[in-house]
Amino acid sequence: MSAEPVPNRPPAPEKPDYEIVLVAYRSAELVRGLLDALPGRAIAVVDNAHGVDGLEAVTAGRAGVRYLDGPGRGFASGANVGARTSTRDVVVFVNPDSSPSVEQLDALVADITADPGLGAVSATTVLPDGRVEIGVGGWEPTVRRALVHAVGAHKLFPTAGLWATPVPGQPISLDWLSGACMAVRRAAFVDLGGFDEQFFVYNEDVAFGRTLREAGLRQRVRTDLLVRHLGGGSGDPKTRMVQLRGASMVRYVRRHNTAATVFGIRIALTAGYAPRWAAAALRGRAALAAEHAAYVTGLWRGAPAGTST
Q: Which run of H or of E encompasses 148?
């Protein structure tokens, strides 16, 4: 008997070709956990703390992992180094304190690879208790949006404020995406100048979103991909980071707006955070009160000493 012909089968899909870029600062244990969870994946670890916590040893001997002594000038510069030295078609920026699965990373890469008009695609980060994190992305800062956030009206009108808190599974259109778990085509990212290194930390993602829009590229947040994110894993004091957040907001707004708009946004955000500071202080929540005060300090006095924002 002759053998029956074997039906033609479509070739197996190729595995997405990408490299994960981790920018780390005094977060060796977080990086260790993430590397353990993603064995064999191509990962660039950019050490912005120059080895003070033994990060190079954490990466040693791991297949696919390369260690880079970073520039030490914040997230944007470290991420740019990782992307520019990569040889892969796609890079995925992942914060060391996040926990994406291989399947989630593959899904982001599949999206960016399949759609030439897509400039960036990100996952939706969630807090350890499962709630969607505010700041997954957001919209261009305006006085009106700052006022909405300041008075807490964004809780009633979730698309009217500054920062987005998407509903899982529901699409949402944003002006920029968080870089906590975001995929880009490497060549396009480099050609557009990467992240703006004038931002030490924070608002480099807002600036990159603007760059993508001006280049005619779209952005997408995958609200069906929920990635756990601890937040605050840099190793720096929380109040310092919050002050940097306020300073970076003002730096960005100044670049694209009139002095009157800058002043209006400062006033709106101060009016929102000053009462929050007072309420936290009265309740004995000293740490939270200090964070609110640090944010207002950043809005008016700029970044802490030793940073460039």
A: helix 143-150
Q: What is the pLDDT of residue 233?
A: 54
- If asked whether residues 129 and 153 sit together in one domain, one would say yes
Global pTM reads: 0.91
Closest among 270, 285, 100, 68 to 181, alpha carbons compared: 100
Q: Which of 29, 39, 96 is nearest to 63 (CA)?
A: 39
SS3 sequence of 43-68: EEEEECCCCCCCHHHHHCCCCCEEEE
Domain count for the chain: 2
Last residue of a domain, one of 207, 229, 251: 229
Instruction: Give the DSSP H/E element, type plus range, for residue 97.
Output: none
pLDDT: is 17 or 174 the higher one? 174
Contact between 208 and 183 under an 8 Å Cβ cutoff? The reply is: no
